[in-house]
């Protein structure tokens, strides 16, 4: 006697077999980004290793991977680690602080509102929440990621700041101080990176771009604030800030090739004005890189 098995049952059994052997993967399941799996920093690559425009064609639109974003307002805390005798340009600190006071209401930051998390929340504002200048000596001529994390912990303890998924701590170092992390070093390989430690102590390592403007600049049409070092650093800062807002734990918005919102538009500035700026917020000029827009599948400023 021949027993006939319904075709739908046969297909279901085949699909189950393929799924359990790893040949068939449900579309909704995505592999976590390697940086998140290994808890590695997410690097903003230097021009020495990453040419402009290479990111746009690769990876397609950003894809949501299930993690949190900095929904609502990001609170930025600035740590200027400038030992006695070190160098930063005269207006370096003040211009960076001004940027953080201006960026929250900008069209550039508003682009983040399309990148929601499971709660439906999205990054929609940013504010400067605190600033601290630390004049303590560096432990070495080359800082390690552990030194950056220790400096963040020191700043939290000294100032009474607290970690939170919407709080971010930026560590700015002085000219010629090198930072290395996970086998990569500043300027020759990266210009900055963001990461976290503990549950949600989110931070960025911000080497001094003026140390190597060929690697971490150069500005496309001059310095709108007559301070090339500060203007270059502000563009790098915007890259890290907006990436962390949309991917704070490196588990949220990433494209198929592992790039974040800023990587896909690195060193792309669009049109610039005669003073070298491409944005004006609250009457203040800035030169900042563009960021990825999933709606337009391209790089935008506003």
What is this structure, in a nutshell?
The protein has 302 residues and is α/β, with parallel strands linked by helices.
Provide an overview of this structure.
This protein has 302 residues and is of the alpha/beta class. Helix content is 25%, strand content 24%. It has one domain. It is built from 8 helices and 15 strands. A 6-stranded mixed beta sheet has the order 1-9-10-6-3-4, sandwiched between helices. The chain has a 3-stranded mixed beta sheet with strand order 5-7-8. The termini are far apart. The model is unreliable at 1-32 (pLDDT under 50).
Rg on CA atoms, Å: 21 Å
What is the tally of beta strands?
A: 15
Low-confidence stretches: 1-32
Query: What strand order characterises the main sheet?
Result: 1-9-10-6-3-4
- DSSP helix count? 8
Please provide the ordered H/E string of secondary-structure elements: HHEHEEHHEEHEEEEEHHEEEEE
Binned, the helix content reads: 25-40%
User: What distance lies between the first and last C-alpha atoms, to the nearest angstrom?
Assistant: 72 Å
Write the layout of secondary structure elements.
Elements: H1 7-20, H2 34-38, E1 42-45, H3 54-57, E2 63-64, E3 72-81, H4 92-102, H5 107-110, E4 123-134, E5 142-144, H6 145-159, E6 167-173, E7 178-181, E8 184-185, E9 190-197, E10 201-206, H7 213-216, H8 228-246, E11 253-254, E12 279-281, E13 284-286, E14 291-293, E15 298-300
Parallel strand pairs: 3-4, 3-6, 5-7, 6-10
Antiparallel strand pairs: 1-9, 2-11, 7-8, 9-10, 12-13, 14-15
Helix pairs in contact: 4-8
């Amino acid at each position: 006697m021949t027993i006939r098995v319904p075709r739908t049952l046969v297909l279901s059994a085949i699909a189950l077999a393929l799924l359990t052997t790893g040949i068939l993967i449900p579309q909704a399941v995505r592999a976590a980004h390697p940086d998140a799996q290994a808890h590695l920093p997410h690097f903003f690559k230097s021009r020495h290793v990453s040419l402009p425009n290479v990111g746009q064609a690769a990876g397609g639109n950003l894809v949501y991977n299930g993690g949190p974003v900095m929904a609502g307002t990001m609170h930025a805390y600035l740590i200027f680690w400038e030992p006695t005798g070190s160098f930063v340009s005269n207006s370096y600190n003040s211009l960076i602080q001004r940027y953080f006071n201006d960026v929250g209401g900008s069209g550039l930051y508003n682009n983040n509102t399309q990148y929601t998390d499971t709660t439906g929340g999205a990054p929609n504002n940013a504010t400067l929440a605190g600033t601290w200048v630390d004049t303590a000596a560096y432990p070495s001529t080359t800082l390690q990621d552990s030194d950056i994390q220790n400096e963040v912990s020191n700043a939290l303890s000294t100032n009474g700041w607290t970690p939170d998924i919407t709080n971010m701590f930026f560590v700015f170092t002085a000219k010629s101080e090198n930072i290395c992390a996970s086998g990569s070093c500043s300027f020759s390989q990266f210009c900055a990176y963001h990461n976290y430690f503990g549950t949600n102590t989110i931070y960025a390592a911000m080497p001094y771009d003026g140390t190597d403007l060929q690697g971490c600049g150069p500005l496309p049409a001059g310095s709108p604030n007559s301070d090339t070092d500060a203007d270059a650093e502000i563009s790098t800062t915007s890259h890290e800030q907006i990436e962390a807002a949309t991917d704070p734990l490196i588990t949220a918005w990433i494209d198929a090739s592992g790039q974040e919102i800023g990587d896909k538009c690195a060193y792309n500035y669009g049109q610039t004005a005669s003073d070298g700026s491409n944005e004006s917020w609250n009457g203040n000029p800035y030169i900042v890189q563009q960021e990825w827009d999933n709606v337009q599948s391209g790089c935008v400023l506003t």
